[in-house]
């Protein structure tokens, strides 16, 4: 008798369960983590927690390789085939929002309190995407190298000035112990260029576009300040201070650790291997101040809701769910990313107060600047990349910048000023 | 005692082989580099590129990279996908393209010249330049599958197969070959009352081994190794992805080069096997023509 | 009197269409229709990503690509009318941008860029183009084809003759020569980036060893004078086996009896090649030449992986620019216009090739 009841209740329970399973709406989600098992494991954990925490929605993950993620999404959007939840690179978001791929998030007030500015994707006055982390760039080097060459070790409060930085490079070059004094990473193409180098341009006082109007690059990208930046940038390569655009990817990955380069301009994601190799000797230094303060790029991958979703409330709920400190901390511990909130940073070994990577959080918080927040950025970024690649290869600086300005302006006109 | 003629022959032979080997080295050295690198840990791999060690299995040799790639990429799934997509396309392509080529080469019909000219003109169109319009086309086509009638071909096997079946190169290859075949074979069969399809099947196919083998290899290569942009655009789900997309899985911010080399080695194997398998077709046909060196 | 088509001919027409139609339908749907769409886009402002409506813009995409002008610049003069010379005694000229940017006196030059220039007396004459990148891509593509088509075709034939011998182990060589073809061009491009690396690349190391250290390392992909050539060499290396196979299949269609006759008549090796092999390869030669030309014009993946058009546009190509603009820059209309121009160029070349290789009757 007891057994029968047991079996009966088991059957009832299972019907109940299947019943709820049927009532759950499926939310598809695209993520850029294919090939990164750690990253997939963490996001899968978050998704499982979300699916278990309520019974209205069930999120299903689809992974894409990061390198070609944008191309895949644009093609899918072109064909009207988007998921409910989209992963989007911060600076690209305005383009997708403007094109109508994305819907604004429906988040409770104060949900974004304490988030790093780079982790919040705003366009046209509305929040479209939120990131669980940010990334930050720093000059990687070793204390022993600087001390051997008699170079001052800069701090967040007192970074190198432009002249100090240039002098340091020349000193190391004259020392002759390294293939190159610094590696700027020209082996990495695409978004790396604007992400890594446009903050230098801003520190000089120029910019990729004129942000007062967002309809032209004239003056911002080819004004006196920008030309000054261009000349400085060119000198890095013509003067053999950094390997140029023909550097192969392997040298980029291992050159600093191998001791070929005295310094490297690199991101927090590469900090752990360097830390392992050099231990206490490692230094992560802020960008030099070329006049307008030290600046680094902000905004990394973020989550948003697709405009084609039939369950926008569910998609928003999921994104809100991901914004919990414990998940931010998990991503940070697993992948070395900077947690998007101070409270989450405190939960991690590396980024907590006194942790070895703590300074990256402060860098991101204090010096992070967004790339131009406009749908036209996607095209401007390519023109900027081309101009810098040409300059690094010895092109006439003014002509190269002029060419980029003309290309950016022509694109803006073709798109009816992108709504500005 | 050996005659001077024999020694001369031997020297000639040695020189001939030396030359063959020298040429072979030129072709094989990047591949040796790839295979050797796949056995080394990243750091050593990169250091070794500075010396001839790059071509030698020296240092810390292991199969670790091969184990690692299975963690990162559904290797078996991707290879099976690619083999299925490629195999189906090659089979259908050989049949339909040779059939069309037969018609172009032997039959006399209205519009033949102009149609052939248009087909050849499509050789000129690089795929990259029509990828987006092609996406529009396949996105508006109907499909009858397990779910009944659906619209749009995205995310499937057939979207990776059907657009690639007919191509100008394959048709052209067959046409050129058929044109060189003796016409009287066909005349004779016509007089015997055979239909055109019977002639195609019973007369032409049996004597066209080499061109079928050539076309099969070329098509296999295009489908297996050179498919990249298209699957990127039309496949959103891992279950349909082919091998070349898998390569993208390795290009994270810090590339694991040893794993890349291991993956490249593994995915290259099926093509090599296919080529070796079909090479017999060349060998027999060479033997039958009996060309002397 | 009208001629009636014979029933036999009508029958052949039906059978002919019937056998060719599956391939024709597939090619129409998946090649010709998309191309016609692309052709149509090139007269609009179609975008890949945009909320703005698509509009017909006439030929403006083409005139953007194909606008040229010539500007004559006089040397700088001092107040006195004296020509100003720099420290080396050369004349100095105002920058081209003084004329092409924000200069109301030269509205027609707005946004134009210098392509090349030459001296004419004291003046400097500058050839301006609206879209210099496109022009450079066009020139590079043509240069690439002119290098690759003859070299690759010729080497492939040599290899085919080499491996079409009866020798022991010949199959091993046949397989090895074909191996690069087996590998994806993307894979090959990745490998060759290691090989061409300017600081510690395999090629530089090999050359250094072979020359006992006399060879100065060259940054193959980083120099404007070597980058395109390096890509061409790699492309030939990769694809030569492909055409070797096509030549080989052609060689096999030559009846052995012809060689026997030649042997009986005591022909030399060269005579056998000249009078038996080469005429027997006529159709194959047409095929190989056309295919190589087409493939060379379609140069894209190598550039995309290895140089992205650089350094200083020395490896820009038409298809690469078509992809960058149409896809990455989301300007399908602009990318399509390049495709159309490419199509017209290659079409006229292949018509010319067909004319040259036509069967003489």
How are the SSEs ordered, and which strands pair?
The complex is a heterotrimer of chains A (420), B (293) and C (361).
Chain A: H1 2-23, E1 25-31, H2 37-53, E2 57-63, H3 69-78, E3 85-89, H4 93-99, E4 102-103, E5 120-123, E6 126-130, E7 133-134, E8 137-142, H5 143-148, H6 162-175, E9 180-183, H7 192-204, H8 224-238, H9 249-258, E10 261-267, H10 271-278, E11 282-285, E12 296-297, E13 301-306, H11 312-322, H12 325-335, E14 338-339, H13 342-346, H14 358-367, E15 368-369, H15 377-392, H16 397-414
Parallel strand pairs in A: 1-2, 9-10, 12-15
Antiparallel strand pairs in A: 3-13, 4-13, 5-6, 6-13, 7-14, 8-10, 8-11
Helix pairs in contact in A: 2-12, 7-8, 15-16
Chain B: H1 4-37, H2 42-48, H3 64-72, H4 75-106, H5 112-121, H6 127-139, E1 142-145, E2 148-151, H7 158-161, H8 168-179, H9 184-191, H10 196-204, H11 209-225, H12 229-234, H13 243-248, H14 257-289
Antiparallel strand pairs in B: 1-2
Chain C: H1 7-41, H2 60-65, E1 68-73, H3 97-100, E2 113-120, E3 123-129, H4 132-163, H5 170-182, H6 185-196, H7 202-210, H8 227-251, H9 256-264, H10 269-280, H11 282-297, H12 301-306, H13 318-328, H14 332-356
Helix pairs in contact in C: 1-14, 4-8, 4-11, 5-8, 6-8, 8-11, 11-14, 13-14
Output the keywords.
heterotrimer, B: 293 residues, mainly alpha, MetI-like fold, two-stranded antiparallel sheet, 68% helix, flat, disordered C terminus, C: 361 residues, 2 domains, 3-stranded antiparallel β-sheet, 60% helix, 6% strand, globular, disordered N terminus
């Amino acid at each position: 008798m007891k057994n029968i009841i047991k079996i009966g209740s088991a059957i009832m329970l299972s019907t109940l369960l299947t019943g709820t399973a049927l009532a759950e709406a499926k939310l598809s989600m695209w993520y850029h983590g294919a090939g990164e098992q750690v990253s997939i494991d963490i996001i899968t954990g978050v998704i499982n927690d979300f699916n278990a925490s309520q019974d209205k929605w069930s999120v299903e993950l689809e992974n894409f390789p990061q390198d070609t993620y944008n191309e895949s999404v644009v093609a899918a959007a072109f064909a009207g085939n988007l998921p409910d939840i989209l992963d989007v690179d911060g600076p690209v978001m305005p383009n997708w929002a403007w094109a109508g791929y994305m819907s604004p998030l429906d988040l409770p007030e104060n949900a974004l309190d304490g988030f790093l500015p780079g982790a919040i994707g705003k366009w046209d006055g509305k929040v479209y995407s939120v990131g669980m982390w940010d990334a930050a760039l720093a000059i990687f080097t070793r204390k022993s190298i600087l001390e051997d060459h008699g170079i001052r070790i800069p701090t967040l409060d007192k970074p190198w000035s432009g002249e100090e930085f240039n002098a340091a490079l020349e000193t190391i070059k004259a020392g002759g112990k390294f293939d190159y004094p610094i590696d700027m990473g020209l082996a990495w193409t695409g978004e790396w260029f604007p992400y890594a180098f446009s903050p230098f341009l801003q520190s000089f006082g120029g910019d990729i576009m004129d942000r007062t109007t967002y309809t032209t690059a004239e003056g911002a990208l080819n004004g006196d300040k920008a030309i000054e930046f261009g000349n400085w940038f060119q000198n890095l390569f013509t003067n053999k201070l950094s390997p140029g655009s023909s550097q192969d990817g392997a040298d980029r990955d291992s050159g600093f650790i191998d001791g070929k380069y005295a310094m490297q301009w690199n991101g927090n994601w590469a900090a752990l291997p360097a830390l392992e190799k050099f231990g206490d000797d490692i230094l992560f230094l802020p960008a030099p101040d070329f006049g307008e303060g030290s600046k680094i790029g902000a905004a990394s991958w973020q989550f948003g809701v697709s405009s084609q979703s039939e369950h926008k409330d569910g998609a928003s709920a999921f994104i809100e769910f991901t914004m919990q400190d414990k998940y931010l901390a998990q991503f940070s511990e697993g992948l070395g990313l900077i947690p998007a909130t101070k409270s989450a940073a405190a939960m991690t070994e590396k980024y907590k107060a006194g942790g070895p990577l703590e300074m990256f959080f402060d860098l991101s918080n204090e010096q992070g600047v967004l790339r131009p927040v406009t749908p036209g950025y996607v095209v401007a970024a390519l023109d900027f990349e081309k101009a810098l690649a040409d300059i690094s290869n010895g092109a006439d600086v003014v002509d190269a910048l002029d060419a980029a300005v003309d290309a950016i302006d022509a694109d803006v006109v073709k798109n009816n000023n992108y709504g500005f | 005692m050996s005659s001077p003629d024999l020694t001369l022959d031997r020297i000639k032979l040695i020189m001939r082989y030396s030359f063959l080997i020298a040429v072979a080295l030129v072709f094989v050295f990047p591949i040796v580099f790839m295979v050797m690198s796949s056995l080394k840990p990243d750091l050593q791999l990169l250091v070794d590129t500075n010396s001839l060690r790059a071509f030698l299995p020296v240092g810390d040799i292991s199969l670790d990279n091969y184990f690692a790639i299975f963690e990162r990429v559904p290797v078996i799934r991707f290879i099976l996908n690619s083999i299925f997509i490629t195999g189906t396309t090659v089979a259908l392509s050989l049949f339909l393209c040779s059939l069309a080529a037969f018609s172009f080469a032997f039959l006399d019909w209205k519009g033949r010249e102009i149609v052939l000219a248009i087909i050849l003109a499509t050789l000129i169109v690089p795929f990259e330049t029509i990828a987006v319009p092609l996406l529009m086309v396949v996105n508006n086509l109907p499909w009858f599958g397990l779910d009944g009638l659906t619209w749009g071909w995205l995310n499937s096997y057939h979207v990776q197969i059907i657009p690639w079946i007919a191509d100008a190169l394959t048709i052209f290859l067959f046409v050129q070959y058929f044109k060189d075949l003796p016409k009287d074979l066909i005349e004779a069969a016509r007089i015997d009352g055979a239909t055109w399809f019977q002639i195609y099947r019973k007369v032409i196919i049996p004597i066209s081994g080499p061109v079928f083998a050539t076309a099969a290899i070329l098509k296999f290569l295009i489908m297996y190794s050179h498919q990249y942009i298209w699957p990127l655009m039309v496949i959103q789900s891992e279950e349909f992805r082919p091998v070349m997309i898998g390569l993208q899985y390795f290009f994270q911010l810090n590339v694991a080069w040893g794993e890349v080399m291991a993956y490249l080695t593994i995915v290259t194997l099926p093509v090599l096997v296919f080529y070796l398998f079909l090479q017999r077709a060349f060998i027999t046909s060479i033997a039958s023509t009996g060309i002397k060196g | 009197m009208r001629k009636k088509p014979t029933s036999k001919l009508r029958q052949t027409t039906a059978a002919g269409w019937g056998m060719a139609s599956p391939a024709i339908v597939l090619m129409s749907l998946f090649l010709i229709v998309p191309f016609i769409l692309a052709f149509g886009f090139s007269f609009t402002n179609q975008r890949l990503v945009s909320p703005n409506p698509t509009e017909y813009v006439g030929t403006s995409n083409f005139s953007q690509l194909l606008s040229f002008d010539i500007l004559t610049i006089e040397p700088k003069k001092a107040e006195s009318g004296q020509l100003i010379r720099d420290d080396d005694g050369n004349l100095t000229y105002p920058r081209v941008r003084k004329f092409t940017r924000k200069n109301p006196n030269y509205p027609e030059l707005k946004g134009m860029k210098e392509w090349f220039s030459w001296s004419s007396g004291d003046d400097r004459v500058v050839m301006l183009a609206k879209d210099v990148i496109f022009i450079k891509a066009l020139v590079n593509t043509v240069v690439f084809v002119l290098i690759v088509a003859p070299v690759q075709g010729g080497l492939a034939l040599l290899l085919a003759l080499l491996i079409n011998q009866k020798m022991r182990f010949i199959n091993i060589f046949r397989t090895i020569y074909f191996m690069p073809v087996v590998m994806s061009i993307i894979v090959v491009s990745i490998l060759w980036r290691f090989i061409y690396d300017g600081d510690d690349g395999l090629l530089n190391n090999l050359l250094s060893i072979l020359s006992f250290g006399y060879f100065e390392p060259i940054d193959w992909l980083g120099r404007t004078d070597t980058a395109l050539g390096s890509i061409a060499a790699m492309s030939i290396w990769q694809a030569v086996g492909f055409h070797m196979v096509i030549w080989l299949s052609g060689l096999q269609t030559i009846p052995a009896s012809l060689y026997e006759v030649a042997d009986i008549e005591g022909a030399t090796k060269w005579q056998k090649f000249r009078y038996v092999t080469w005429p027997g390869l006529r159709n194959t030669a047409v095929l190989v030449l056309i295919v190589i030309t087409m493939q060379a014009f379609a140069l894209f993946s190598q550039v995309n992986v290895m140089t992205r058009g650089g350094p200083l546009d020395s490896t820009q190509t038409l298809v690469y620019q078509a992809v960058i603009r149409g896809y990455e820059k989301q300007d399908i209309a602009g990318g399509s216009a390049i495709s159309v121009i490419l199509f017209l160029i290659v079409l006229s070349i292949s018509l010319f090739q067909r004319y040259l290789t036509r069967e003489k009757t």
